[in-house]
Amino acid sequence: MKNYFDLTGQVAVVTGCSTGLGVQMAKALANQGAKIVAMARRKDKIEAVAKEIADTYKVETLAVQCDITDTDRVNAAVDEVLAKFGRIDIVINNAGTGAVAPAEDITDDQFNGEMNVDLFGTFKVARAVAKKAMIPAKYGRVINIASMYGLVGNKIAGSAPYHAAKGGVVNLTRALAAEWGKYNITVNSICPGYFYTPLTKETLDSDFFQQNAKTMIPMERYGNEGELDSAAVFLASPASTYVTGVNLPVDGGYTCM
């Protein structure tokens, strides 16, 4: 029997892999046999994540401290991964931030910060991984974590810089897919809706957000832990060899209305 989603022996770098969705996706790839590189700014967090994944899934792991807005550090981090594993097959660009305020009150610093992390940071990691590992290997899976808010606007929480940056990630995904297809590198994005994580649970369970779910989401609920994992595994796996330049909403139908 063929396992379409087998990632045994492949090396996956996950940025923003200290909490929440990044950790969930890293575990999903480890469950399919991938070696995991947990990358984020907080050393203690990623070391704990790497140890937990190694202990639970019996795969090799590496914790690499990296601020994705620092070009030199990004390049050094990729070199560190290549020094240990000799390859990078998959990268999930998950690190992100979010400034919330009415558009008319957003500061230049907030807008610049959002662009630097969500859009430029995503590009810096993709650029370094492609140049140093994937283009030479003529193989790669780049998965950018955009957002349903990269596809539409919203009325419940003003976050214009986030929308702009994630919209940039959506079209950056298309641009990189077009350029790197000749190297057998696929570039896709996942556009998550609201998901339950330790940081969002209290907000999403509030009366306002529960009512919002019933009004705005066809499935009338928010995403549960694990419901993003299968999209990440599919786009990382040999099952998606002819899928590139796609922005996949995983949002309970939010963007279909």
Automatic annotation (TrEMBL):
A Pfam family recorded for this sequence: adh_short_C2
InterPro entries: NAD(P)-bd_dom_sf, SDR_fam
Keyword terms: Oxidoreductase
EC class name: oxidoreductase
EC number: 1.1.1.69
Coiled-coil segments on the chain, per record: none
One function term, GO molecular function aspect: gluconate 5-dehydrogenase activity
UniProt cross-references to SUPFAM superfamilies, sorted A to Z: NAD(P)-binding Rossmann-fold domains
Family, similarity comment: Belongs to the short-chain dehydrogenases/reductases (SDR) family.
Protein name as it appears in the record: Gluconate 5-dehydrogenase
Source species: Treponema rectale
